[in-house]
């Protein structure tokens, strides 16, 4: 069995804790390390998650020949710079999403990746989660016939504190939909039929309280098979029972209703209705994502969430955001 890939997280914030929690189940494939501008913080993460080494600063990790790959887990403003530096140092890269701020940034990352001959995976964990895998399989199997409508609902009342970096659009790259709604846009765009065009409608932003971002968006889109869809996104509107959110895919022979977080899928098509449980073991897809990254490093194959795949989402994001404020 090959030795685990030594992978260092650049940045020791909340999302690195999320990644590291799931990496505990992938120790055969990946061994984590931690780098932070705060040496004590990096060491605390190393102890908490049994890392192989802690680094006082990102450059120290990039210069270490024992490090094979890095996770870029800092605000999006710095993703491109760290990607280019990591590739120049010969490291494979897993970069948090949204990976970059513009399509030109993606093109620069692609060119650097090709020059370095390294793997770059965009950390779109939603691509790998059991719900997404289940929905793609159902549409591929023609469970409800040709898709006509798609309706995605991700409403939640989750405000950020005043000192959260997401309140600074220079750091986050954009509003709440750009920074977090991109995950749901990818889900809508990854089911089999691909989104051909999209437009966004943003309600007048509420600027009261500490979370000053624009926090809601309605996206409308057309698919390349003629279907049409909507995505309701908000981080200021309460959801049913403080968490239950239902979405639907409408086909010519039935309907797929699913809990947006992945708890269940109800299929009403040919035959009797089916209630499916996609799976909670890796409900957010992090472990499958990291295993794809490790396998791509070892075999040289292209990961599922390649830069090119993420660029398709970025094109749609730019279409959605290209409209005047109300």
Features:
326 residues, alpha/beta, 8-stranded mixed sheet, 6-stranded parallel sheet, 33% helix
Describe the structure.
With 326 residues, the chain is of the alpha/beta class. Helices cover 33% and strands 24% of the residues. The strands form two sheets. An eight-stranded mixed beta sheet has the order 8-9-10-7-11-12-13-14, covered by helices on one side. α4 runs parallel beside α5 (103-116) and α5 (103-116) runs antiparallel to α10. The model has no long low-confidence stretch (mean pLDDT 95).
> Can you list the strand order of the major beta sheet?
8-9-10-7-11-12-13-14
Low-confidence stretches: none
Q: Residue share in helices?
A: 25-40%
What do the pLDDT scores average to? Answer: 95
Oligomer: single chain
Q: Taking Cα atoms only, what radius of gyration do you get, to the nearest Å?
A: 20 Å
What is the string of SSEs from the N terminus onward? EHEHEHEHEHEHEHHEEEEEEEHH
Tell me the span between the first and last alpha carbons.
58 Å
The secondary-structure class comes to alpha/beta
Strand content: 15-25%
Count of alpha/pi helices: 10
Categorize the overall geometry. Answer: globular
Major beta-sheet overview = 8 strands, mixed
- Number of E-state strands: 14
